[in-house]
Target: Ribosomal protein L7/L12 C-terminal domain-containing protein
Amino acid sequence: MMETVLLCFIAMLLVYIVLLQKELQRLKEKVRQPLSESEQRALTEKVRELLRRGANVEAVKFVRQETGMGLLAAKQYVDQIGGDL
Model:
């Protein structure tokens, strides 16, 4: 009886560890290194190109995808670049 309870407890701990590892991996992928100067220039140029075509939403999506920024930060970044045009 005690062995069964102990085995169930160990199994639950293993499942919990696997779930934590998956969450850790997801968070690692979300965190990105800062962009290099050349990557920053390329990002800015691509955003300008999208804005010239009137693709504002796509520009925000692109910034989020490339940088991992949140929605508000990406929107502000795009708006700042749009103000420079």
Residues 1-31 form one domain. Residues 2-30 form the longest helix (29 residues).
